[in-house]
Amino acid sequence: MRGPQTRREIVGAADRLFYEAGFAHTSFADIASSVHISRGNFYYHFKSKDEILRAVIAHRQDSTRALLAAWDHAHPAARDRLSAFVRILSDNGEQIMLHGCPVGSLATELAKLMHESREDAVAVFSLFRDWLASQFSALGRAEDAEALALHLLMRSQGVATLFTAYRDKALLAREMAAMERWIDGAVSGEPSCQIGEDNRTCI
After folding, report:
1. Average pLDDT rounded to a whole number, residues 97-109
2. What pLDDT band is residue 157 in, cutting at 50, 70 and 90?
3. Quick check: 167 pLDDT over 90?
4. pLDDT value at 1 more than 80
5. CATH class, 61-193 region
6. What is the 3-state secondary structure of 77-130?
7. Smallest Cα–Cα separation from 59: which of 16, 105, 113?
8. Taking 90 as the threshold, does the pLDDT of residue 53 lie above it?
9. 84, 71 Cβ separation under 8 angstroms
10. Alpha-carbon distance 72 to 66, whole Å?
11. Closest CA to 155 of 95, 96, 202
12. Buried b or exposed e, range 113-139, using 16+ CB within 10 angstroms
């Protein structure tokens, strides 16, 4: 049926435009023009931009779950799964260099706008956090798995932000290698890679 397909095309176009131009700077007209449909047909599927945003966030959540499931299937070992997470920076390097991290950029924009969908956007981060924590738990760090997961997630976001700012592929490669070393230290239980009440961790 054309109806569901048109709706998917609208969500896909909005997802791309929200990422490239930002939610606030993307209009109904921009999205409708991108999918080459009339304004009336557009309103049949979505009555407001906020409604499209909710659909985009739901799409991103589903895509993230599918990505994590694919990593689980492709990498039987938890340590290799953590490397797959690190490699997402290089796998999506060109897009990140131009537009930043799609998860971080939308969550940050919605936070600034105090938008009601902010928590739903942040939920994509939570999917990554919980998945990373399960990998650290499998590697013997169950007690501080969530803290380790948050540290790795924050570090990845920081690297993505600086890569977008500097557009330096050598910097990206260095920081990815440093993240891998940090993971090895955390997994081996190096004293400098412990996370305590002050949330300190090795770098």
Report:
1. 97
2. very high
3. yes
4. no
5. mainly alpha
6. CHHHHHHHHHHHHHHCHHHHHHHCCHHHHHHHHHHHCCCCCHHHHHHHHHHHHH
7. 16
8. yes
9. yes
10. 10
11. 202
12. eebebbebbbbbbebbbebbbbbbbeb
CA-derived radius of gyration, the chain: 19
Residue spans in the chain of domains classed CATH 1.10.357.10: 61-193
DSSP 24: T
Residue 196 has pLDDT above 70, yes or no: no
pTM equals: 0.91
Half-sphere exposure of 188 (CA within 13 A, CB side): 10
Architecture per CATH, 1-47: Orthogonal Bundle (1.10)
Task: Provide CB contacts within 8 A for 122, sequence distance 6+.
Answer: 107
Cα 194 from Cα 185, distance rounded (Å): 9
Phi and psi at residue 189, to the nearest 5°? 75, 30
Report helix, strand and coil shares of the chain as percent, to nearest 5: 80, 0, 20
